Amino acid sequence: MTPTDNFSLEDGFACFRPVGEFTLEAVTRSIDEAIACCVESGIRNLLVDLRDVTGFPPPGLVERFYFISQWAATSGGRLRLAIVAKSELIAEDMFDIVVAANRGMTSNAFTDRDEAVAWLKKNSYSSPPPSTGT
User: Fold this and answer.
1) Long-range CB contact pairs, 123-131, < 8 A, 24+
2) Domain annotation for the chain: domains and CATH numbers
């Protein structure tokens, strides 16, 4: 699967919705590729809808730390990420959100797509963040 598969532009954000059975490594890599495509295209808001993805158990703490750190590095702080997933894939302690924030990426996780869209549209990135002057 390439990031252009199941990828669409919507009102103020891009949406990536992989469908089918994947390994955790494959789906997290495809999300990283979707993030990279958005950043390269100047798209500032990405919704990733994982509700139709199967094939792996909920990721553990180390796995979450690794892929969130990678996504944050790929985003370079230039993208807001909303994940929509089944409740068993969302960490109750919001560890993922904290890891992303500590690495410069704004993100959130939802079980409801409408809530994710509302979050993305509220205070969405419409232009590049100000330069730090370094």
Assistant:
1) 124/12, 124/13, 124/44, 124/45, 124/80, 125/44, 125/45, 125/78, 125/79, 125/80, 126/12, 126/44, 127/44, 128/44, 128/78, 129/77, 129/78
2) 7-121 (3.30.750.24)
At position 108, the amino acid (one-letter code) is N
* Span 42-69, pLDDT tens digits: 999 999 999 999 999 999 999 999 999 9
With beta carbons less than 8 A apart as the criterion, state whether 97 and 124 touch.
no
pTM for the full predicted model: 0.88
Give the Cα-Cα-Cα angle 41, 47, 115 (nearest 5 degrees). 145
Exposure letters 89-112 (e unless 16+ CB within 10 A, then b): bbbeeeebbebbeebebbbbbbee
Alpha-carbon distances of 119 from 21, 28, 34, 78, rounded to whole Å: 28, 22, 19, 16
